[in-house]
Amino acid sequence: MTLRALGSRSEALALYVHWPFCVSKCPYCDFNSHVRSEIDQVAWREALLADLAHEARLLPGRRLTSIFFGGGTPSLMDPSTVEAVIDAAHGHWEVDAKIEITLEANPNSVEAARFADLAAAGVNRLSLGLQSFDDSALRFLGRAHSAHEGFRALEIAQKNFRRVSFDLIYALPGDTEDSWSAALAQALSLGTSHLSLYQLTIEPGTRFATMVAKDQFEPLDPDASAALYERTEAMTCSAGMPGYEISNYARIGQESRHNLTYWRYGDYAGIGPGAHGRRLGARTVRHKKPENFLLAVARNGHGIAEEAPLSALEAADEALVMGLRLAEGVDVGSIEQRFDRAVIDWNRVDRLVASGHLTHDSGRIALTARGRLLLDHILGEIALVEPRALAVA
Length: 393
What we know:
Elements: H1 3-7, E1 12-19, H2 41-58, E2 63-71, H3 79-92, E3 94-105, H4 109-112, H5 115-121, E4 125-131, H6 135-140, H7 147-160, E5 163-170, H8 177-188, E6 194-199, H9 207-213, H10 222-238, E7 243-245, E8 248-250, H11 257-263, E9 268-271, E10 276-279, E11 282-286, H12 290-300, E12 304-309, H13 312-323, E13 330-331, H14 332-339, E14 341-344, H15 346-354, E15 358-361, E16 364-367, H16 369-372, H17 375-382, E17 383-389
Parallel strand pairs: 1-2, 1-9, 2-3, 3-4, 4-5, 5-6
Antiparallel strand pairs: 6-8, 7-8, 10-11, 11-12, 13-16, 14-17, 15-16
Helix pairs in contact: 2-3, 3-5, 8-10, 13-14
């Protein structure tokens, strides 16, 4: 199977744009984010446009279905930079009539003041990092906004964008089913059509990881966290915003189109520092450090640090891992035909169906509510130890 065949299953394409700068580094964050006293917006605009042009030359004739500005804190971008990237993308590719253009934003008042300009620049969906409605929790999480600022930013966002989502982090030390249920009920009452609800995880290399190692706080017990997840599933479903992915909930038709491209293993180009991409059967990774990224663009015309073809085995494994995060699950036969690899141990699938952790219908497997609590374990159970090429009839 050729490299192009691995990546050209559909002409559709998503674009991810990474803005690496933040006002401060949150203690739970392991994303590629950096604090800088000064940012040359013009230099960054030119670098992003050059990096984008490189991807466009490799991906002619594609139909752009989504753009996602992530970070970092993309709401710190000058709206003219956002507009320039959107305009350039429109020039490089055919654009889907229903293109989704999302930008992640923080609720600080200085950023909320830019929402109207960002909407005018072409952003039509805002993802707002509220994280909590409680000031003490926000201080614990190292956030630079108050609960009041968060509610005000949401109000401004809903006036400027037709589609608004916001994030909350739960399963913090001291969280209970009652406290989280009250917060979630409030979230569900605020009128958005999408929520991203993440359990606090202690990621290696973060300040929280250091604090836990020094016994400065103790993460919530796993059983308690599981109970909170089950309560989340029940409440969102009852409110008409079922979970369509492990941590994402939406009204029907309001799912994140961009993120669905990842989870359904479609092609996406990634530009900006640290951005990952999957295109034409290859993986790409940009230089993470902002200064190194700028130097690479000046030297090479792009910011790529690593680019390598994916083997059929690697690609099939990624497609399985990503697809099982979705409530819709994965069509195993489609994955195996696409990558010419048998990847599933069906005997183990049958056992997990019998135990209530998986469903299986006409070759499509999906996690049950019980199974979603054990995603990593289930993946290890059902994946073939030695995936093999499909037999030729």
